[in-house]
Amino acid sequence: MTVRELAQQAKAASGKLAITSAQTRNDALLAMADALLAAAPDILRANAEDVRAAKECGMKPSFIDRLTLDEKRIEGMANGLRKVSLLPDPIGKSDYVAVRPNGLRIEKRRVPLGVVGIIYEARPNVTADAIALCIKSGNACVLRGGSEAIRSNAATCDALSAAAVQSGIPQGAIQLLRDTDRAAASEMMKLNGLIDVLIPRGGAGLIQSVVQQATVPVIETGVGVCHVYIDESADAGMGADIIENAKCSRPSVCNAAETLLVHAAIADRALPQIATRLTARGVELRCDARAKALMPGSIDASEEDWSTEYTDLILSIKVVDSFDEAVKHIETYGTHHSDAIVTSRYDVAERFLNEVNSAAVYVNASTRFTDGEEFGFGAEIGISTQKIHARGPMGLDELTTVKYAIRGEGQIR
Amino acid sequence: MTVRELAQQAKAASGKLAITSAQTRNDALLAMADALLAAAPDILRANAEDVRAAKECGMKPSFIDRLTLDEKRIEGMANGLRKVSLLPDPIGKSDYVAVRPNGLRIEKRRVPLGVVGIIYEARPNVTADAIALCIKSGNACVLRGGSEAIRSNAATCDALSAAAVQSGIPQGAIQLLRDTDRAAASEMMKLNGLIDVLIPRGGAGLIQSVVQQATVPVIETGVGVCHVYIDESADAGMGADIIENAKCSRPSVCNAAETLLVHAAIADRALPQIATRLTARGVELRCDARAKALMPGSIDASEEDWSTEYTDLILSIKVVDSFDEAVKHIETYGTHHSDAIVTSRYDVAERFLNEVNSAAVYVNASTRFTDGEEFGFGAEIGISTQKIHARGPMGLDELTTVKYAIRGEGQIR
Q1: Which of A109, A205, B144, B308 sits CB 3.0–4.6 Å from B177 for a disulfide?
Q2: How far apart are CA A325 and CA A320, in angstroms?
Q3: With contact defined as beta carbons under 8 Å apart, do B340 and B229 qualify?
């Protein structure tokens, strides 16, 4: 089947799916969880083939790790489906009802987006996650996963799709693009009228490729050059705790910090202890001249470092002379994802929250909290770094749009 | 100045504009209204040149009419600025504050989009409207109006921009692209990182050109193939009132009806009186075979008619055998803009509201109400026909995005 045919089937199913009850969708998610566990042997067999092929191609161990499924990961995927079934239904609620002077009742109602396209890399667990969130929110989906995981994704999708249909989800609502050719992905990005929104999930290269090629609306996700700024008014110990956590707790994710900015007035108190703690955690320190003098074992940062998302145990460090210089640095080199200040001053805290133009701005907390789960959304389809439709962690509400349902008694204008 | 330089200036101004107070922005709008009236002689002189050039090029009278300004239209533009100053401030309000178990306070706050790009055709009053809504919502703007109105737009922009700066709006927040070359417009559509969103306003050709070319996120506006469906349960007189209003009250706009669907069981009662009334209003009736037999003076509709936005006194008419056939027709040929049913049955009304997947769905009212003013938004920057970010009439709230402001006491994860 061509990608256009897949999308046409998804589109046809989306109209029926949009008017299923929450009960039907939740029951389906539970049945899909059971089906996933029942299909575990098939999925693991398919995954083993994917892993063997990836090893033969000489893929890196970190890649192989992300690609590999085991019984525990499949259980995690099934639990994810069950958890999503328990979340509040995002569909049908109204946050605006106006009765106009002419008597028209105008209700703004949450409805599914329609058909969501998701383009992602070789993490087969994303397949189950994405399907769960789309079905919960009443959306059909067209998935295009990394070619290296195609057998795993196909086995997962087959199991979930069959269970969904048995539970009353319209046939065709869950589509996986099995043609792993790049041309098919490019065609998918141009299916205006069939796909309502594209969400790319993956590295900067994937995301840029989608932004550049797509004519379907895109929600850009992910790239995070996040900062921690330790103000002169900071508790130096709190600053050290926060940067250690923001850098080291999970360096591969987009909400990890990449750059530490330190006010000159506190640099000699803060930086030596930070150097000790980060070096002990294996972090490479890339510094400007003033920071380098205070951080034993550090090396020189280049201009490029300030705009680099390392996703690794590397941190760039700069000493600044003022709050304004810190904000300017963040605005110049950052990606407007997540940025934090450590300060004890009220006015400085409020200015940071106002003036730093990022999806998430923190006072005295780690940037690592930018996450749908941590924000209380119960689930996350990605973290938007653009400004339209969604910004920051995207939960189920961000997979909906609105319609206006208007009731009259013959009004004309 | 190149379009990139214009956008860089707008971007630089947008950070400062975003943190101006509502008072500053409202005072500026009032000063801008005064300045517009004071500059009326200059603007009218510039407009007269635009009109003369357009006439020399042989433009149609309807085009000349949209292009022409007079004192009354300039007063209307000034009143528009004043009216926008009185609307509630869309910036800074929070619709979600969560206190998480770890004590983090997560506030979702409305902030400006940043830099809004608006591409429009030769209606110079759009220039003042768009600037008013952008300044009110704390957004810098880059405007690209139709080349035929360039002198009028430049004079308008100069007057408004000078008054804005004098009132504390940062220099550079209001930008007009004076290079009317298409290449400059194309470049504008690719300024990711400088322009946050593009809103095209105009005909289908302009909008498609932006959707196809842009890499900056776009909010698609406008094209409306809107339907009125008269169900077998309808009051035939109400049906006639509604289709006459939906077609004739202003046929050039996107919320005007283009197609009438009538249930076979009521066609012989409804269609003859509708034919009489619409013919008296000068409407050309393009019918399927069954409708034609009931509508004196009508002609045959072609397949193309069902998907045509006439924006003129032309209506296509089809007799359907069921509610389902009507819904299927609307989903197949419509643009999901505004669609209405006329019915006396509760279940049919609710099914229509649920099953027709359009931005605005009406029971017993004219499609002509799809409008920011009529919906109670106080202003409108356009009508979105896409699903992400905004759908239906876009008011000031739709010119904002969110940021998460998070207050902690040293939390790490």
Answers
A1: B144
A2: 6
A3: yes
Rounded distance, CA A32 to CA A47, Å? 19
Whole-complex ipTM: 0.94
What is the residue range of A211's domain? 3-220+386-407
The predicted pLDDT at position A223 comes to 85
From A279's Cα to the closest Cα of chain B, the distance in A is 19
With beta carbons less than 8 A apart as the criterion, state whether B66 and B54 touch: no
A339-368: average pLDDT: 98
CB B274 within 8 A of CB B243: yes
| Domain shared by B51 and B163, yes or no | yes
CA distances from A243 to A8, A207, A231, B140 (A): 48, 27, 13, 34
Query: Cα dist. A89→A134, A135, B165, B201 in Å?
Result: 12, 11, 47, 35
Q: Does A253 touch chain B (CB under 8 A)?
A: no
How far A47 CA lies from chain B's nearest CA (Å)? 32
Q: CB–CB of B273/B296 below 8 Å?
A: no
Q: What pLDDT sits at residue B29? A: 98
Rounded to an integer, the average pLDDT of A48-55 is: 97
Q: Which chain B residues in 373-392 lie under 8 Å from chain A, judged by CB atoms? A: 374-376, 386-389, 391-392
| B325, containing H or E segment | helix B323-333
Residues B361-389: pLDDT tens digits? 999 999 999 999 999 998 899 999 999 99
Q: List, as ranges, residues 103-132 from A with C-beta within 8 Å of B.
A: 104, 106, 111, 113-114
Domain shared by B61 and B99, yes or no? yes
3-class SS of residue B313: coil
The whole-angstrom separation of Cα A240 and Cα A277 is 8
How far apart (Å, rounded) are the C-alpha atoms in residues B365 and A383?
40
Q: Are B326 and B263 in contact (CB under 8 A)?
A: yes
Q: What is the CATH number of the domain that holds A247?
A: 3.40.309.10
Q: Is residue B109 one of the residues assigned to a domain?
A: yes
CA pair distance A41, A156, nearest whole angstrom: 11
Q: Are both B161 and B178 inside the same structural domain? A: yes
Q: What is the mean pLDDT of chain A?
A: 96
Residue A231 resides in a domain: yes
| Count of alpha carbons within 13 angstroms of residue B346, beta-carbon side | 0
- Judgement on whether residues A141 and A42 belong to the same structural domain of the protein: yes
Number of domains observed in the structure of chain A: 2
Asked if residues B67 and B50 have their Cβ atoms less than 8 Å apart, the reply is yes
Rounded CA-CA distance A214/A196 in Å is 12
User: Do A25 and A170 lie in a common domain?
Assistant: yes
Residue pair A70/A44 in contact by the 8 Å Cβ criterion: yes
SS3 A204: helix
CATH (domain of B23): 3.40.605.10
pLDDT tens-digit map of B132-155? 999 999 999 999 999 999 999 999
For residue B289, give the amino acid letter.
A
Residue B101: HSE in the Cβ half-sphere, 13 Å Cα cutoff: 4
Min Cα–Cα distance to chain A from B404, Å:
5
Three-state DSSP class for B343? coil
For chain B, give percent helix, strand, coil, nearest 5. Answer: 45, 20, 30
Q: Where are the beta strands (DSSP E) in A226-305?
A: 226-230, 257-263, 284-287, 299-300
Nearest-angstrom CA–CA distance, A394 and A377:
8
- State pLDDT tens for residues A281-316: 999 999 999 999 999 999 999 999 999 999 999 999
Give the list of residues 6+ apart from residue B64 with CB closer than 8 angstroms, or none. Answer: B51, B54, B55
pTM for the full model? Answer: 0.93
Interchain proximity A412–B242, CB inside 8 Å: yes
Give A338-351 pLDDT, tens digit per residue.
999 999 999 999 99
